[in-house]
Write a structure and sequence with these properties.
15 helices, single chain, oxidoreductase, Cyt_P450_B, Cytochrome p450, mainly alpha, 382 residues, 8% strand, 49% helix, three-stranded antiparallel beta sheet, monooxygenase activity, three-stranded mixed beta sheet
């Protein structure tokens, strides 16, 4: 988990498409090379709808009230539902949110500054996305703490306690249904209230689609952003020349965050896909209905596209990374995740001139999940 990239390199060398099994026992076709992954991300023959699956795919066992989300939809339903919330995540709307995100980050770091050591995951990387999502939904961040714990249970389940995942899913469904009910009774000037109005007044969403969309925004808006921030902070501490460079020129923050996205991709795989017909990828014919995993992490280290891919180079030029996907399923919250990471890292750089790791890099603990790549703790002194 700490350094999966040698394994990714071996997979890419072994072939563009590999038949393998995930740690949770699912048989999949793994696509490793940039050109194939890039094309497949926007290939309409590859369905996201699990109804297109054959061959024993199970995945997360979500109830219908959570499963009617964008990660289980193809056009035209995907187009209709995504259009309802896309305006909330445009670059222009995110720019308007920046002062509020900055205030959240500064407030969190005020607490950090009261001592001389901290765990930056617990102090900054985890709470900041919760505060921002709470702002979007009109919900106090404290009210999302339970949701954060349930998310962690699903992403990194304890194999010895499989019932925990079922309990987490049931709790998530109940929490979101209660949240929708409370917002319906007392709407505000927030994204969730607007989504409820689209359901109740305009009839553009089904009730299950409404709750599932709230679930996806909370899940996706939290998990990947936490690890983008955490991985970025780690790169500052592993390679102090970047820390010095950002102090000298804040304009380097956007390319720094882009390189973190490529170099330490927070979400190593795109959401599973199912061919609607037999599909050839990289010279391999994948039968209809089989499960396809597109390795974003492998693609982002492909030497055919990225020169010296194992080097962290914020000034990198060329064909961009695929960390946020591509095409109609490109991550809806990508502009917001970028802004949060830039603001969090920038605030940290400005506030703490003596920032340093408080543990050797090879002793840091990582989340035990193949679905995400991120730290559990990041102890520092300053």
């Amino acid at each position: 988990m700490a350094d999966p990239y040698p394994a990714y390199a071996l997979w890419s060398q072994a072939g563009p498409v590999l038949r393998t099994t995930t740690p949770d026992g699912a048989a999949v076709w793994l696509v490793t090379r940039h050109a194939d992954v890039r094309a497949a991300l926007n290939d309409p023959r590859l369905s996201l709808n699990r109804a297109s699956a054959r061959g024993g795919y199970t995945g997360f066992a979500l109830p219908p009230v959570l499963d009617a989300n964008l990660l289980n939809m193809d056009p035209p339903d995907h187009t209709r539902v995504r259009r309802l919330v896309a305006k909330a995540f445009t670059a222009r709307r995110v720019e308007a949110l920046r002062p509020r995100i900055q205030a959240f980050a500064d407030g969190l770091l005020d607490v950090v500054a009261s001592g001389n050591e901290a765990d930056l995951m617990a102090a900054l990387a985890v709470p900041l996305p919760l505060l921002v999502i709470g702002e979007l939904f009109g919900v106090p961040a404290a009210g999302l703490e339970d949701f954060r714990r349930w998310t962690t249970t699903l992403v990194a389940p304890d194999p010895g306690q499989p019932e925990q995942a079922k309990v987490a899913v049931a709790n998530m469904a109940r929490f979101l249904q209660d949240l929708v009910a409370s917002k319906r009774a007392a709407p505000g000037d927030d994204l969730l209230s607007a989504m409820i109005a689209a359901r109740d007044e305009d009839d553009r969403l089904g009730e299950e689609e409404l709750v599932s969309l709230a679930f996806l925004i909370l899940w996706a808006g939290y998990e990947a952003t936490v690890h983008l921030i955490g991985n970025g902070m780690l790169m500052l501490l592993r390679e102090p020349e970047h820390l010095a460079a950002l102090r000298g020129d804040p304009e380097l923050l956007p390319p720094f965050v882009e390189e973190v996205s490529r170099f330490m991709t927070p979400t190593p795989y795109a959401i599973r896909r199912f061919p609607l017909q037999d599909v050839e990828i990289g010279g391999t014919v994948i039968p209809a209905g089989q499960t396809v995993l597109l390795s974003l992490a492998c693609a982002n280290r492909d030497p055919a596209v990225h020169r010296d891919p194992g080097a962290f180079t914020p000034a990198r030029e060329g064909d961009g990374h695929l960390a946020f996907g591509r095409g109609i399923h490109h991550c809806l919250g990508a502009p917001l995740a970028r802004a949060e990471a830039q603001i969090a890292i920038g605030a940290l750089v400005r506030r703490f001139p003596d920032l340093a790791l408080a543990a050797p890099v090879d002793e840091l603990s990582w989340q035990a999940s193949f679905r995400s790549h991120g730290l559990l703790r990041l102890p520092v002194t300053f």
